[in-house]
């Protein structure tokens, strides 16, 4: 049982490493799916956590924050989707002819590579003010 | 609809006021619009607070819908000109006494019940009451079954039937979920009054709506509730709503 758990943890760590490597390394020109290159933050500042931590755990931070805010009424904390939008919303030719800064192109970079479907933007606006 | 409110906390608040309340702590901006104390960042909603609204229907004009327009602008709910399915967070209801012909107009929105039937029936926990009495829908876990809409005696909730774009950052809303008045929870948490209350005072010039903490004897609403006889709609249901009406 313990062995299995250790193996699981090792695999998880390996996966995390591979994802981190995949995002930072340049695209391989061997006919494979191009590697994602998420745009730099609009504000050009340091994120709320180091980049590798954000890549691995951003979904957990957001999930935790969303429950705290909606049910507990806790606002103004470190993690928030609004915070993501403020820094990471980028203008993209595909969205409103590049006239509006939105978060979707930034999220899409890695999510389409990893085949992850999110439905945040079914309800939340990704557009920056 | 004639029995006055009999919530013990409410009664005690009134008594404390009559015995000589402390000085007015709130800052008055316009008639009916006072700044609330904003909650500190990271602090949770407190169960010591009971947010409530008092609507003076004697000041409410039949032709006026500034509260509805303000709510729509603030929260970004728009329809498709389909009255049966369009969202309505707040609506104006006109009443007429058949015997005497006397008319009455009042806004009706989520009544923020103390014991909300919508919360009782929700199968996922998406419909819930916050510690400070505000009844909300957690759209992350709403499955769109609409039991809450059937359970609500006030027809306060609506269902989003179609894809939504251009939402406000503070009011996410999307297809397949139920929504209703939030008492402008994002404004209240930031120490502001709900949009309808501000519009009623500033645009309509009526100040027919008062919002505040019913548990605070020094709040404008507790004082107003002490001055007037107030009713709740269908008080016989015993839901102890957070929306009180005067002159109904």
- Named at the architecture level, the CATH assignment of the domain at 47-77 and 85-206 and 231-242 in chain B is 2-Layer Sandwich
From the structure provided, what is the oligomeric state, counting identical versus distinct chains? heterodimer
Measured as a percent range, the helix fraction of chain B is: 10-25%
The tally of helices of chain A reads 5
Number of strands of chain B: 12
Low-confidence stretches of chain A: none
Q: Kindly state the mean pLDDT of chain A as a whole number?
A: 82
How large is the share of residues in beta strands of chain A? under 5%
Compressed to H and E, one letter per element, the order of chain B equals HEEEHEEHEEHEEHHEHEE
Structural class of chain A: mainly alpha
**Number of helical stretches of at least 4 residues of chain B:** 7
CATH fold assignment of the domain at 47-77 and 85-206 and 231-242 in chain B: Alpha-Beta Plaits
**Which two chains have the most extensive interface, and how many residues on each?**
A-B, 18 and 29 residues
Helix/strand order of chain A, N-terminal first: HHHEEHH
The 3D shape of chain B can be described as globular
Through-space gap between termini of chain B: 7 Å
Specify the helix fraction band of chain A. 40-55%
Cα distance spanning the termini of chain A = 51 Å
Instruction: Describe the main β-sheet of chain B briefly.
Output: 4 strands, mixed
What does this structure look like?
The complex is a heterodimer of chains A (129) and B (248). Chain A is mostly helical and 129 residues long. Chain A has a domain at 38-123. Chain A is built from 5 helices and 2 strands, in the order αααββαα. Chain A has helices at residues 2-24, 51-72, 81-88, 104-113, 120-123; strands at 90-91, 101-102. Chain A has a two-stranded antiparallel ribbon. By secondary structure, chain B is of the alpha+beta class. Chain B has a domain at 47-77 and 85-206 and 231-242: Alpha-Beta Plaits, CATH 3.30.70.20. Helix content of chain B is 21%, strand content 19%. Chain B has 7 helices and 12 strands. Chain B has helices spanning 8-18, 66-75, 117-121, 147-151, 185-189, 195-202, 220-227; strands spanning 27-30, 33-35, 51-56, 90-96, 103-109, 127-129, 135-137, 158-159, 178-179, 209-213, 230-231, 243-246. In chain B, the strands form 5 sheets. Chain B has a 4-stranded mixed sheet with strand order 10-3-12-11. In chain B, strands 1-2 form a two-stranded antiparallel sheet. In chain B, β1 (27-30) and β2 form a beta hairpin. In chain B, α1 (8-18) crosses α7 and α2 packs across α6. Classes of the chains: A mainly alpha (129), B alpha+beta (248). The interface between A and B is medium-sized, with 18 and 29 residues.
């Amino acid at each position: 049982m313990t062995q299995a758990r250790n193996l699981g943890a090792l695999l998880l760590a390996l996966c995390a490493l591979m994802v981190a490597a995949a995002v930072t390394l340049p695209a391989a020109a061997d006919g494979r799916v191009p590697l994602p290159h998420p745009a730099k933050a609009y504000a050009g500042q340091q994120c709320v956590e180091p980049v590798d931590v954000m890549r691995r755990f951003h979904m957990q931070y957001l999930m935790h924050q969303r429950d705290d805010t909606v049910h507990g009424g806790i606002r103004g904390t470190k993690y928030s989707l609004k915070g993501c939008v403020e820094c990471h919303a980028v203008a993209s030719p595909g969205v409103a002819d590049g006239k509006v800064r939105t978060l979707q192109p930034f999220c899409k970079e890695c999510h389409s590579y990893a085949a992850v479907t999110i439905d945040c933007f079914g309800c939340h606006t990704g557009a920056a003010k | 609809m004639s029995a006055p409110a009999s919530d013990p906390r409410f009664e005690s608040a009134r008594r404390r006021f009559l015995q000589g309340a402390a000085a007015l702590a709130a800052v008055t901006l316009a008639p009916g619009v006072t700044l609330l104390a904003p909650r500190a960042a990271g602090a949770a909603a407190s169960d010591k607070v009971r947010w409530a609204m008092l609507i003076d229907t004697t000041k409410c004009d039949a032709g006026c819908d500034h509260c509805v327009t303000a709510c729509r602008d603030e929260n970004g709910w728009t329809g498709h000109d389909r009255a049966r399915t369009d969202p309505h967070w707040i609506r104006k209801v006109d009443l007429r006494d058949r015997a005497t012909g006397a008319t009455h107009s009042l806004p009706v929105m989520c009544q923020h019940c103390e014991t909300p039937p919508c919360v009782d029936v929700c199968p996922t926990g998406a419909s819930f009451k916050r510690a400070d009495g505000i009844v909300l829908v957690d759209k992350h876990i709403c499955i769109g079954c609409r039991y809450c809409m059937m359970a609500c005696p006030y027809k306060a909730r609506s269902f989003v039937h179609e894809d939504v774009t251009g939402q406000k950052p503070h009011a996410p809303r999307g297809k397949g979920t139920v929504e209703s008045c939030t008492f402008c929870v994002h404004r209240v948490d930031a120490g502001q009054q709900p949009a309808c209350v501000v519009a009623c005072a500033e645009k309509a010039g009526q100040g027919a709506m008062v919002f505040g903490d019913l548990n605070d004897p020094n709040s404008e609403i507790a004082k107003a509730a002490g001055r007037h006889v107030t009713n709740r709609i269908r008080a016989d249901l015993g839901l102890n709503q957070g929306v009180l009406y005067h002159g109904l």
